[in-house]
């Protein structure tokens, strides 16, 4: 049976998400949209991490019994997935802070257009 | 303080026992020896930190007591050494100072004191004469507001001088050497409000630095070649080396270079040609300081150092004759300047330079014993003369006001015999001793030096003898002139000064009397062969200490009695004759105006040259000081102001400022611009990583 998610397909998905994210961050001036685009980039990374973790899991399990692969067998194979969880947590925190800044920005200048907030310069 | 001292001593004792370095001598002798330099240090600490709260009398008493106690300790050690130690040097508790590597070998330096024949003389002179001068100072400085500072410095000086004289290695000796230089500087510029005096202190310091550099170079050469700076070990290795002719000739240059470098140090400290110029200016300090530092002790440090290293000097070839020539030249040069000086202290200062020349003359001729003998007698009679002149100045200052230079001017003195009989007669004794009149101390020591020159097998022996005799004649003359102008004839100063002049207090006259007694009996410790055979106790006492250079070794094998008698009679006739002539001439009324009239006639060029000290100061000013000043000015303007300040400091700040002015344009404040540059950068980095 042909697999639904071949590595190629998943990488294309991830690349698409990353590109949309980068475009959104660079081209849009609305801070909310920029934050969302940022999240998309993180998701792209997460997807790749999960993919690679899964691809290498079999290697780790079959692994040669040496000090090196011993670690991989128990931890290494899942590192990518654990890392993904970590990134999601941090991303949640980041969004919280980002939204708080956004609210503060809106309160102070009635706008969330980043091109208008350019006081940070000489 | 006491606790600190005790714990220090205990730890010192502990270290000594642990290292297994316990010598035979009992703890009492060791303790006494350790206390000799530490007691003045204790006095210094107390006076320096709490002296301001003490009364002048308490401060002075404390200082005198600490040095007096050091004298007692020195006597105890001497007694032990002379009667019980059988010639084995007494060593103090030994503490390691620092350890390092020198050319792959261990190089240890200890804080240890060693007490041998030479130290007996030095320690007793320093603490003995030092005590008398401290006591004298209590009277002399009673009205000075800086009394506690004065006594603190004086005690610190004694500590440094004792380190110099008792230290068992050259590093400790050098510590003392620099310490006495510092105290000399501090005490010359004691009345620092007077710019002239502060400048005199600075001059002494700078001139001494030149010598100190030579000393350091010599010390490093010795450390390099011998691998140790312990004086006893140096003497031992040098003695072994003297037998090894091949190695000696191969390394001849090292010994010559080391010896001449060390002698440069001695020239600076002991005021010989060409570095003597600081000593006459050093008379700006209080008079007891001139007596202690610039006559009795510090200036003899150079002589002591060469004597201490006699074994090393025996390895050199031309250095000792050179020292003899420098000494003899200095003796006659300074004596001739002393003939016409008008300041009572300046006369004595040049006399000191001249007498130090005699000591170096003896050292250079290999007659170390007589150099040390003259060092000792000179300490007595020159300290006496200085203290006497201080007594005169002190008395005249009541009329002239404190610090008035008129109170030191011989032209404004005269007839003071009536007012201050004790000062007068003690100074007469000191003067006779300085002139070398028989019975008095100076006669015995100076006569031996002149005789050594006559008997020397060196080529320079006879010229040195002639210079020595000439200097002796001048010495007798200027001493008689000084005494006649001060105490005899009629008083030439203002009337109210005469009214106020009076004999000095007991604290000042008692040291004078003691020193006068020493100036008489001090010479009797070494009566020459021809007068009493075998009575040259002092020479016998010291004879084992020094390594006699090869050219002087045959000395004493032949019978020199006739030469001794001839020399003695000759120098006695000259001393008494010149003293009588000088005294007769200058004790008559109007002698000075007649001398001036005569000088303005035929002898004018000679007279003015002498009065201006051969224009040496002016020459140094033109040839050395001014070029250095101009060079310093050039460096200041071009190197410091232009290169460092303008180019380096302000220049680099300007460049950075200009750069940041350019760079800050990047900070637009537009977030999307930052993001663009960020992503472009990321892309470039990725490309680099992929394609490289």
Low-confidence stretches of chain B: 11-22
Helicity range of chain A = over 70%
- How does the major sheet of chain B shape up? 2 strands, antiparallel
Please compute the radius of gyration of chain B using only Cα atoms: 30 Å
Account of the 3D structure:
The complex is a heterodimer of chains A (122) and B (692). In chain A, 79% of the residues lie in helices and 0% in strands. By secondary structure, chain A is mainly α. Chain A has one domain: Helix Hairpins (Orthogonal Bundle). The longest helix of chain A is centred in the last third of the chain and has 43 residues, at 67-109. Chain B has 692 residues and is mainly alpha-helical. Chain B has four domains: 1-168, no CATH class; 173-309, no CATH class; 318-595, no CATH class; 616-691, no CATH class. A two-stranded antiparallel sheet of chain B has the order 1-4. A two-stranded antiparallel ribbon of chain B has the order 2-3. In chain B, helix 20 packs parallel to helix 24 (561-587). The A-B interface holds A 22, 25-26, 29, 114-115, 117-122 and B 664, 667-672, 675-676, 679.
Question: Gist?
Answer:
The complex is a heterodimer of chains A (122) and B (692). With 122 residues, chain A is mostly helical.
Topology:
The complex is a heterodimer of chains A (122) and B (692).
Chain A: H1 7-27, H2 31-62, H3 67-109
Helix pairs in contact in A: 1-2, 2-3
Chain B: H1 2-18, H2 27-50, H3 56-83, E1 90-91, E2 95-102, E3 105-111, E4 114-115, H4 117-140, H5 147-166, H6 170-188, H7 195-226, H8 231-243, H9 245-250, H10 252-269, H11 278-281, H12 287-296, H13 301-308, H14 310-313, H15 319-338, H16 344-364, H17 368-400, H18 421-435, H19 441-455, H20 461-487, H21 495-500, H22 506-521, H23 537-542, H24 561-587, H25 591-601, H26 604-611, H27 616-663, H28 671-691
Antiparallel strand pairs in B: 1-4, 2-3
């Amino acid at each position: 049976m042909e697999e639904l998610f071949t590595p190629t397909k998943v990488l294309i998905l991830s690349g698409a998400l990353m590109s949309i994210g980068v475009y959104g961050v660079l081209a849009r001036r609305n801070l909310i949209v920029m934050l969302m685009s940022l999240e998309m980039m993180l998701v792209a990374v997460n997807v790749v991490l999960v993919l690679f973790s899964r691809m290498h899991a079999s290697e780790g399990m079959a692994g040669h019994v040496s000090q090196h692969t011993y670690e991989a067998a128990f931890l290494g194979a899942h590192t990518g997935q654990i890392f993904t969880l970590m990134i999601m947590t941090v991303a949640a925190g980041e969004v919280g802070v980002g939204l708080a800044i956004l609210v503060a920005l809106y309160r102070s200048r009635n706008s969330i257009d980043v091109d208008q907030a350019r006081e940070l310069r000489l | 303080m006491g606790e600190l001292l005790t714990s220090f001593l205990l730890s010192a004792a502990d270290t000594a026992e642990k290292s297994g370095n316990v010598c035979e001598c009992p703890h009492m002798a060791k303790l006494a020896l350790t206390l000799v330099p530490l007691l003045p240090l204790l006095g210094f600490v107390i006076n320096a930190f709490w002296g301001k709260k003490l009364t002048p009398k308490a401060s002075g008493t404390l200082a005198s007591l600490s040095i007096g106690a050091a004298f007692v300790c020195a006597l105890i050690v001497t007694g032990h050494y002379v009667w019980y130690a059988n010639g084995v040097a007494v060593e103090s508790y030994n503490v390691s100072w620092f350890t390092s590597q020198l050319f792959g070998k261990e190089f240890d330096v200890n804080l240890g004191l060693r007490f041998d024949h030479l130290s007996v003389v030095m320690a007793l002179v320093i603490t003995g004469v030092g005590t008398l001068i401290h006591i004298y100072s209590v009277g002399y400085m009673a009205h000075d507001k800086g009394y506690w500072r004065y006594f603190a410095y004086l005690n610190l000086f004694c500590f440094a001088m004792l380190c110099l004289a008792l230290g068992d290695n050259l590093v400790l000796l050098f510590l003392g050497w620099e310490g006495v230089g510092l105290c000399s500087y501090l005490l010359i510029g004691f009345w620092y409000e007077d710019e002239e005096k502060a400048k005199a202190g600075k001059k002494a310091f700078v001139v001494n630095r030149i010598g100190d550099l030579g000393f350091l170079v010599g010390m490093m050469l010795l450390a390099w070649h011998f691998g140790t700076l312990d004086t006893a070990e140096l003497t031992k290795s040098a003695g072994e080396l003297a037998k090894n002719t091949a190695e000696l000739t191969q390394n001849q240059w090292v010994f010559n270079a080391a010896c001449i470098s060390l002698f440069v140090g001695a020239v600076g400290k002991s005021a010989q040609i060409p570095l003597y110029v600081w000593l006459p200016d050093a008379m700006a300090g209080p008079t007891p300081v001139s007596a202690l530092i610039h006559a009795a002790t510090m200036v003899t440090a150079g002589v002591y150092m060469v004597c201490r290293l006699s074994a090393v000097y025996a390895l050199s070839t031309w250095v000792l004759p050179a020292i003899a020539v420098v000494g003899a030249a200095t003796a006659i040069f300074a004596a001739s300047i002393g003939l016409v000086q008008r300041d009572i202290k300046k006369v004595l200062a040049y006399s000191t330079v001249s007498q130090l020349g005699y000591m170096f003359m003896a050292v250079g001729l290999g007659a170390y014993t007589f150099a040390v003998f003259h060092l000792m007698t000179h300490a007595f009679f020159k300290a006496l003369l200085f203290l006497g002149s201080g007594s005169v100045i002190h008395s005249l200052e009541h009329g002239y006001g404190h610090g008035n230079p008129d109170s030191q001017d011989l032209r404004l003195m005269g007839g003071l015999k009536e007012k201050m009989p004790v000062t007068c007669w003690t100074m007469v004794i000191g003067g006779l001793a300085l002139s070398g009149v028989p019975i008095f101390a100076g006669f015995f020591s100076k006569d031996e030096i002149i005789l050594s020159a006559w008997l020397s097998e060196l080529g320079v022996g006879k010229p040195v003898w002639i210079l020595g005799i000439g200097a002796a004649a001048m010495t007798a003359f200027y001493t008689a002139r000084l005494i006649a102008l001060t105490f005899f004839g009629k008083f030439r100063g203002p009337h109210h000064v005469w009214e106020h002049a009076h004999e000095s207090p007991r604290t000042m006259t008692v040291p004078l009397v003691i020193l006068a007694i020493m100036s008489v009996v001090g010479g009797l410790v070494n009566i020459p062969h021809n007068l009493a055979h075998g009575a040259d106790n002092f020479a016998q006492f010291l004879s084992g200490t020094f390594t006699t250079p090869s050219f002087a070794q045959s000395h004493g094998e032949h019978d020199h009695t006739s030469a001794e008698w001839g020399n003695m009679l000759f120098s006695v006739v000259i001393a008494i004759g010149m003293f009588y002539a000088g005294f007769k001439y200058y004790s008559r009324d109007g002698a000075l105006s007649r001398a001036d009239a005569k000088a303005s006639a035929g002898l004018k060029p000679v007279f003015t040259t002498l009065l201006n000290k051969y224009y040496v100061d002016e020459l140094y000013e033109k040839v050395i000081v001014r070029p250095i000043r101009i060079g310093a000015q050039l460096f200041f303007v071009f190197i410091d102001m232009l290169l460092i300040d303008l180019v380096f400091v302000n220049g680099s700040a300007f460049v950075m400022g200009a750069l940041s002015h350019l760079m800050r344009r990047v900070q637009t404040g537009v977030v999307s611009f930052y993001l663009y540059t960020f992503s472009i950068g990321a892309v470039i980095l990725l490309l680099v990583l992929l394609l490289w």
